[in-house]
Q: What sequence folds into this?
């Protein structure tokens, strides 16, 4: 159910290629991806894209890359992201990591955000900031270098192809 039919490698290669082909400077593409990844660390599932696109626009990043970057939060990573952000947030708020016990059945039975804020959302949001910033910086660097390298290789191939065609034209005209 969670495994793509053609495998994860093909799905990741597809996302990689989509990012490489986005228009804009390597900085704009990498900035968009970084904003999307940072947004993906927040506990507001379903709103990641709504947060990432305006922030990417504000900072001059690619809005398409930001939307793609939010896919960092997916069914495979969220079970890792959520407890990790909660634990880091608890630590930042002065609590002992692993010491808090929350009765989620009681909290979610009423679905009242005001009751969820203090024990769940506040620590997760606070904990998402350092973890998200670290991941965003890492993704920025990797994406910037990858896009720049991809485009340089493409320009080299096109230049070589143009030289080859020009030499073939001048050789056949003589």
A:
């Amino acid at each position: 159910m969670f495994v793509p039919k053609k495998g994860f490698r093909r799905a990741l290669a597809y996302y990689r290629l989509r990012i490489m082909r986005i228009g804009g400077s390597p900085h704009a593409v990498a900035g968009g991806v970084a904003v999307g990844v940072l947004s993906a660390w927040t506990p507001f599932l379903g709103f990641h894209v709504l947060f990432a696109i305006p922030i990417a626009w504000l900072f001059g990043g690619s809005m398409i890359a930001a939307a793609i970057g939010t896919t960092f939060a997916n069914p495979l990573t969220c079970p890792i992201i959520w407890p990790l952000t909660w634990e880091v947030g608890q630590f930042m708020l002065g609590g002992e990591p692993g010491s808090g016990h929350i009765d989620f059945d009681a909290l979610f039975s009423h679905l009242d955000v005001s009751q969820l804020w203090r024990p769940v959302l506040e620590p997760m949001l606070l904990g998402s900031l350092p973890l998200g910033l670290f991941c965003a910086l890492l993704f920025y660097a990797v994406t910037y270098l990858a896009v720049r390298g991809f485009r340089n290789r493409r320009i080299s191939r096109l230049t070589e192809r143009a030289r080859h065609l020009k030499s073939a034209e001048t050789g056949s005209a003589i």
Notes: Residues 32 and 117 are 29 Å apart (CA to CA). The chain is about 75% helix and 0% strand. The chain has a mean pLDDT of 86.
